[in-house]
Every structure is written in structure tokens, then in C-alpha cells.
Amino acid sequence: MKVASLLSLASWVIPRFKDEELRTIQISQTEVLDVTDHEKLLLKRQGVRFFDITAFPSFLRSKEGSKVVNYSYPKQLTNEKKVSEILERCDTKAMFEDLALFTNFYTRYYKSEYGYESATWLSNRLRNVTKSLGDRATQFHVDHHDWKQFSIIVRIQGSETPENLIVFGSHQDSMNLIFPSSLPAPGADDNGSGTVTNIEALRIYTYYLNKTQDWPRNTIEFHFYSAEEGGLLGSLDIFTHYAQQNQTVVAMIQQDMTGYVEDSQNEHLGLITDHTSPLLTNFLKRVIKKYLNIPYVETKCGYACSDHSSATRNGYPAALVIESDFSKKNKYIHTTMDTLDRLSFDHMAEHVKLIIGTIAELGNWRFERLSNE
Ligand code: BES
Ligand code: ZN
Q: Where in this chain does the record put each Peptidase M28 domain (predicted)?
């Protein structure tokens, strides 16, 4: 059904109130619509994908077609020892326990009180994970204007070129697509899995740093975005702000859905090739070949499906790694059936290897900006 007919159907079912607040969404390169919250949900249920650009429409529209800045990444990977030393501590039991607690919240819907409580749990867990680093690891809450669930940034400051940010992202919110405000949304795979993948990578990297004091030259950040399901809202706030502040993000790697394996005889990762940076994605291929036990396939979302798009949208090189080929992904997401019993923790551990391999190779890398021809 066309978007226009969907919208007229929506306004027939629930008419717009006079003075009802409208949100601005961008559904393609050229189409921007003003819709109510109810219309937005109806579009999402019908599979229409969008950025919610209410907070900065003119800024984003003016960046239409803005070029992603390119950097060179290592061709030869040489940090086997460091990678295996860090990965020794990777513990699927710890990941299971984190995910069990995280999916225990009735929902992590960004507008709900539960979504605020789950963010508070996550913040405390991250504090606990990094506490041995004292003030060498800092945590920031990013409060958003229109909803209560905050985003979280954990930063390990680079020792020599702290202005270069390497970002590992994942969204923390979940959503039941039928009735987000009243039905449960365990969101084990979408995106509890990406969240615990990043927590585990941070936990074992912290242990390594504490033991070796081998601080990275560049800054490493872990981001836990709020309100991805509302149209990439949390990450748009963050990356738009970073761009306005002229921050340098040299790589952004998003983990969204890392736990589902449809066919264990054909286990692989999915590297997304649309709305992503080819140079960064090619570098990740090298990391996978060198440090993981399973192969990758190249695949497409077909739309701006996760928070990496907020980074590319602001001119930063970004990649998205998912659990499999897009066609073999978990079919239970956005429902009450997105539960942890359907997931493989060994598969999530492969995603952890990708993060650790990337940190080991890029943490001390001397980034050079390439000309954009
Ligand atoms: N986790 C999904 C994106 C995804 C889908 C990743 C399949 C890997 C495989 C994400 O939470 C989501 O639901 N995205 C929205 C679009 C977004 C712009 C609101 C979607 O796919 O409908
Ligand atoms: Zn989702």
C-alpha cells in the first residue's frame, strides 16, 4: 500500500486532534512527512522505514548527500597475541546472565518507565564492568528532549591522539510493534544481543587494560543508544551533536542482532553493504578472516535499518554487522517471542571477537584522512 493511502487510513481510524504534535520523518532521500505518533507506528507496522528528524530537520536536510570522510585502515593484521590474550576471558555465561537480567524488563520501550529503568540497570552494569579503571574510563548519560530513556557513552580516552574516536554502538531499546506502550517486548535479539556483545567486549578489554596498562593511542567509545526503534532518535542526537562539535569519528561499528543462527551448519556473520562505508567494511572482512571461526556474507538491509545510518548521515564512516544474511535473520523480533532461548551465545562470542580484533588493530593505528575523490 502507498504511504499516502496508509496515512489517510490512519487518520480515518484515529483522527488527528487539533493542535496534536506532529513529528517529522524522512522516508527516503527525497520524501519528508509530518505525522502523528499513531501514524508513525502504523507506518512502521507496514514496514515503512524512516529517520525521525523532528529535532533537526533543516540540519539534516541540508546535509543531503554529504560525503563520508574516508580513512585508511590496516591491510596487514598483526595483533594475534593481544587478541588471543584479551579473548581468553570471554565468557558466554556472563553474557547469558546479562541478557537474562536485561530481558527481564517488561519492555525497554524508550517512552516507558520500564525503558528508563532498563537504562538505569545498564548504566550500573557498565559502571561495574569498568570500575577497575577508575577515572580512565568515563561514563556519560545523554538525556534526550522528548523521552525519558537516556543513551549511554563509555569513553576510554586515547593516550596520544584522543581526538580520534573509534565507536562501538548498539541500541538498548526494544519495542513490541503491535502495542508498544502496553505489550511486553523482551527484545532478546533486537537488541539485547548487541548490547551484551558490547558489554562483554568492554568487560574483557577492561580486564586487559587493567592488567597490562597498554592504553590505546586513540579513544575507544562504547555507545548504547536509546530510541532506535522510534527512528534512530538517540543516535541521531549523538552524531548530529558530534558533527556540530567537529568531533572526529574514524570508525563506527554497530552491532544490531548478534544472536540468532537459523542453520547451525551454515553459521556466518552478515556484513551490511548499504548505508555503510566500503573501506571500513573491507577492513572488517580482514578482521573476520583473521580472528573469527566463522565466515561472513555480504548482505543488505535495503534501508537505513540501524544506528550506523545516523553516523554515515553525519559524514562518519560506519559499518553494521548482523547475525547472518539479512534473509536468514530472526523472524521473532518486535514480538513477545524475541526471547533468549532462541539465541546462540557462541555466536554472540564471535561478534565479541570482531570487536576485540578491531580494537587491537585500530586502537594504536595512525589514522590518515584520504581525499574524497
Ligand atoms: N534490529 C533492527 C534492524 C535489523 C533488522 C538489523 C534485521 C538486522 C537485521 C532495528 O531495531 C529495527 O527494527 N529497525 C527498524 C528501522 C528503524 C529506522 C526504525 C526496522 O527495521 O523496521
Ligand atoms: Zn528493531
A: 152-356
Taking the CA atoms of 25, 27, 29 and 32 in sequence, report the sign of the dihedral they define.
negative
Backbone angles phi, psi at 40, to 5 degrees: -65, -45
CA of 306 to the centre of ligand 1 (A): 6
Domain residue ranges of the chain, discontinuous segments joined by +: 3-48, 69-372
Q: Name the residue with the closest Cα to ligand 1, atom 20.
A: 305
Q: Which of 46, 305, 313 to mutate to test the pocket of ligand 1 (most atoms within 8 A of CB)?
A: 305
Q: Is 356 helix (H, G, I), strand (E, B) or coil?
A: helix
Categorize the per-residue pLDDT at 64 as very low, low, confident or very high, splitting at 50, 70 and 90: very low
Give CA separation, 326 vs 142, 193, 217, 259, 339, in Å: 31, 16, 35, 13, 19
C-alpha cell at 275: 548505508
Q: What tens digit of pLDDT does each residue of 190-243 get?
A: 999 999 999 999 999 999 999 999 999 999 999 999 999 999 999 999 999 999
* Residue 200 backbone dihedrals phi, psi, to 5 degrees: -65, -40
Of 283, 323, 148, 140, the residue nearest 224 (C-alpha): 140
Give the tens place of pLDDT for each residue, 285-319.
999 999 999 999 999 999 899 999 999 999 999 99
Task: Calculate how far, in angstroms, residue 348's C-alpha sits from the geometric centre of ligand 2.
Answer: 17
CA distance readout (Å), 333 to 108, 109, 249, 289, 323: 13, 13, 30, 29, 13
- CA–centroid distance, 79 to ligand 1, in Å, is 33
Give the CATH number of domain 69-372: 3.40.630.10
Which three cell numbers mark 361? 588493530
323 C-beta closer than 6 A to ligand 1: no
- 160 contact partners, CB below 8 Å, separation of at least 6: 217, 218
